[in-house]
Fold this protein.
Amino acid sequence: MSSTTKGPEDNVDLIQLIASEIKESREQYRPTSRQRLAELVQERTGMPHAEATALVDTYCEENEPGVPYYLQEEFAIPYLKVIAVLNVLCGIAACYYGVKVLKTSKPGWPWFCLGTTFCGLGALAWVKSLERYAARKRQR
């Protein structure tokens, strides 16, 4: 058995933590999700994220089936990072093609401009994803 496994009295405290957070969010008319609850359990107890997610899922399946897995802003953050990586890869490919065009004695500057634009858009998407994550953390 791992050292992070909680005893029965610790599980009761965690269940009360989850239940009180759901109750508080309903009273304040603030949406909550299983992802957010798992992050809360992880922050307060130091439990690994996989165990916290399993605990929250088990509780919500039995007692609170209406709590969604993700909210819209939680789901959009990873996609911004994926878009950022894809933009940077497109920018690198455009710059690489610009070097190949430059070796044939043709002007390669349009490809370099296109590559720089894509890399800049990738950096912007990455920064925006970090800003959204920080804003969501501050909202709590």
